């Protein structure tokens, strides 16, 4: 027998599993600290790559000025300014990444907890239907023997 509540819950669960649930189930498998740490390492590498590319692009654009001012003192100044700039940029990005990925993990945990709650509810519906069908079968069997 088709149960409308059961079908509704199964549809919601299937939509979650096929949609955003795939990523959320994967994210919720990590401890928050591990998930955030892994993504902060990735963020660091992307910021480093972007910073190097920007420096190279600026070096190519202003190549004549760079070559005209090329002295040991200027190279040391450039390296120090570049490292300080990178450190400042990295700190800002890491703070934003920490907040973003912590929030993302928290939301994934919440949604997966709700998903498992619906799964438990579906299991209870199945158990209730099974108990009712067993009871009706027993009642029908007793009536036939008497």
Give the beta-strand count: 0
> What number is the mean pLDDT?
89
Query: Which overall shape is indicated by the principal axes computed on the Cα atoms?
Result: rod-shaped
C-alpha Rg (nearest Å): 30 Å
Strand content: under 5%
Helical proportion, percent range: over 70%
* Unreliable residue stretches: none
Structural class: mainly alpha
Number of helices: 5
Biggest sheet character: none
Give the N-to-C terminal Cα separation.
28 Å
N to C succession of SSEs: HHHHH
Question: Outline of this structure?
Answer:
The protein is an all-alpha fold.
Task: Give a description of the structure.
This protein is mostly helical. It has a domain at 33-105. The protein is built from 5 helices and no strands. Helix 1 (4-18) packs antiparallel against helix 5 (72-145). The longest helix has 74 residues, at 72-145. The two termini are 28 Å apart. The model has no long low-confidence stretch (mean pLDDT 89).
What features would you highlight for this structure?
mainly alpha; 146 residues; 91% helix; 0% strand; 5 helices
Element layout with pairings:
Blueprint (H helix, E strand, L loop, with lengths): L3 H15 L2 H8 L3 H30 L1 H6 L3 H74 L1
Helix pairs in contact: 1-5, 2-5, 3-5
């Amino acid at each position: 027998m088709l149960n409308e509540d059961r079908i509704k819950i199964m549809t919601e669960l299937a939509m979650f599993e096929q949609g955003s649930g795939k990523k959320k189930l994967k994210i919720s498998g990590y401890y928050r600290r591990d998930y955030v740490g892994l993504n902060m390492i990735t963020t660091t590498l992307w910021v480093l790559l972007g910073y190097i590319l920007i420096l190279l692009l600026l070096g190519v654009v202003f190549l004549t000025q760079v070559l005209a001012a090329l002295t040991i003192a200027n190279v040391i100044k450039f390296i120090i300014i570049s490292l300080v700039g990178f450190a400042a940029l990295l700190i800002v990005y890491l703070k934003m990444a920490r907040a973003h990925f912590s929030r993302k993990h928290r939301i994934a945990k919440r949604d997966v907890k709700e998903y498992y709650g619906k799964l438990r509810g579906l299991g209870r519906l199945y158990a209730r239907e099974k108990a009712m069908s067993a009871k009706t079968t027993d009642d029908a069997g007793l009536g036939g023997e008497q």
